[in-house]
Specification:
This protein has 204 residues and is an alpha/beta fold. It has a single domain (2-203), classed as Rossmann fold (3-Layer(aba) Sandwich), CATH 3.40.50.300. Helices cover 33% and strands 21% of the residues. The chain contains 8 helices and 11 strands. The strands form 3 sheets. Strands 1-11-10-9-2-8-3 form a 7-stranded mixed sheet. Strand 10 and strand 11 (200-202) form a beta hairpin. The protein is globular and about 45 Å long. It starts with a strand and ends with a strand. GO terms for molecular function: kinase activity. It comes from Amycolatopsis dendrobii. Keywords: Kinase, Transferase. InterPro entries: P-loop_NTPase (IPR027417).
Length: 204
């Protein structure tokens, strides 16, 4: 596999340019998928997109976790549950992605569930105008039929994954994702982030 080294700032600029070029729908949904570093990258794209006249909203997938009673039904450190049961895919689809459709309301819920307090957030919906972009970041976003227009996958080598993921017990979940979904094959852009200070873009 060949990777092109790039600085974090240049990476943000290049991805911003590619997202801004997407004009096939009224509103654009972008996924930034990976085990680590997805939130900072989403934030790095938000302001540059706004400067280009694209209303941009960052929606962390962590705001769409299922209630603790469902996430931890098989224990708090069950890697299979982490992979299949933690993220509320239906809620993310219903409250974020469906409204972005050309015939959708355009009103997005930025978070559905407060995992720390284990209760609904009750946040107001945010209107996303035409040409708006919603950046959804988190883990295990691919392979579940979520309707994204552009996907960035942050790839970690097995060694870097062990170093950078704080929940060592969850490593089998990431291994399943890599083997069963092959997120690099589904993404529009794959970025190696073993060292977040020195990313590299995969070039086939």
């Amino acid at each position: 596999m060949r990777y092109r080294p790039i600085s974090p700032d240049a990476l943000a600029a290049e991805l911003t340019e590619r997202v801004d070029a997407l004009t096939h729908r009224r509103r654009i949904a972008v996924a930034i998928d990976g085990a680590a570093g997805t939130g900072p990258l989403a934030e790095a794209l938000t302001d540059p997109l706004k400067l280009l006249g694209r209303a941009a909203l960052h929606v962390p997938a962590a705001g769409f976790l299922r209630p603790a009673s469902l996430r931890f039904e098989h224990g708090k450190q069950n890697p299979d549950a982490r992979y299949t049961d933690w993220l509320d895919l239906g809620g993310l689809r219903r409250e974020v992605l469906d409204p972005l459709a050309d015939d959708g309301s355009g009103e997005v819920l930025p978070a559905l569930w407060d995992a720390e307090r284990d209760r609904a957030t009750r946040l107001p919906r945010v209107p996303v105008p035409d040409r708006g972009v919603v950046l959804v970041d988190g883990e295990f976003l691919l392979g579940a039929g979520l309707a994204f227009d552009f996907v960035v996958h942050l790839w970690l080598s097995p060694g870097a994954l062990r170093r950078r993921v704080p929940d060592e017990w969850a490593l089998p979940a990431y291994e399943r994702y890599e083997n069963e979904v092959d997120p690099s094959a589904l993404a529009d852009v794959v970025v190696r982030v073993d060292d977040p200070r020195h990313p590299a873009i995969y070039e086939p």
